[in-house]
Amino acid sequence: METLRSAPRAFKVLVASALIENVGFGLIFPYLTIYMVADLGISEPLAGVALAGYTMSGIPAMILGGMLADRIGRRPVLLMSLGLMSITFAMYFFASDFLTLFIIILADAFVGTLYMPAANAMIADVIPSKDRPAAYSTLRIAWNTGLFIGPAIGMLIVSAWSIRELFLIGSAIMAGAFVMNIFFIPETKPTSVATEEVTFRKMMAVSGNRPFLMLCVMTGTLWFFISQWMSVLTIYVTEELDFSDSIVGALFSVNGLMVVLLQLWVTSKMVRFKRSAVLLSGQIVAALGFSLLFFVGDLEGLLVCIVIMTSGEIIYMSIVGAIIADMSPEAERGLYMGFSGFVQSFAMGAGMFFGMLFLYLLDGDKVIWLIFGMFGLVTSLGYPLFAKMIGPEKDNPAKYGHQPAK
Predict the structure, then answer these.
(1) Nearest to 211 by CA among 125, 135, 120, 276
(2) Does residue 127 sit in helix, strand or coil?
(3) Considering only 114-118, 235-239, 336-340, which range has the smallest mean pLDDT?
């Protein structure tokens, strides 16, 4: 609350908007895989294709969102995304087969993903470099407050009616966030930065920044295996462990509640250490949580794994947003945010597709958790290389002083 009180209005509105938006998102996404498989009768491999399509459709949108945020401003992109999401959420209600649902998923992911690079650039616009870890953590708390409230409400709705009604309620929530932003969110794009033509070639030229590209690749490895939390785990819990749909919502709520309670405290501790060491530790802990799913079959063990996975996620996310912001030149913040989101979205899409495919090929065998856990552990070895690429001063700003991109 102290962070919010002293922050510019744009940041306050963005935090409130993120909370409302993610109540709607959290209401729906934990149940989307179950809706496809159990309600619409879509096979697990096709459900994996749909989930991969969700993130893959977000890839061009992430790039376009970054371009537009630099070209026309942050505010129009945020409004465009929220307004169109209220429409695509309602469209899920009318889905009846795979093709219809797949088209809706592609549209929903595209318009929803426009939001992220503009929101991240807005924070970099209004928050000084030294305060960005706390700012990005505060925004993450708002998101996860929504992801805690949304699944909890969804659990009640599913118990009383069905999954289908969730989509209409989610649509109304998105419309509320849209209206709030119309009246209260200001434009924050720096007036000192000249508006230049932004092209796809210029976006991809960002990859020439080798340390930044390395960071994007490493965050991609995290999202490749952690995306199983949003796809394979929901089916595994309901079909292989035979828990009810409402348990899925409860697990997502535990994840969200932990972030709300612990994220800022963890961030305040993590900023004291080398950034590469924090990212390395977070990924190892998250991978360990995934691996331990191999050994559990009861609710208590499942909760322990969720707590461990979420702890790793909290550690990792405490500083990664600030690192990306600091490596982004002022005139190209939207581009850099869009490119990092592009890599993460591609990794998530690939993770969801291969996760659902492996679940089908392995016939639900729990060895899938060892596969993804080991992937997370092995790829975490890339962080020491990242540390060498950026040097000790940028890797440990608490010791040497902060050096954001110019």
Answers:
(1) 276
(2) coil
(3) 336-340
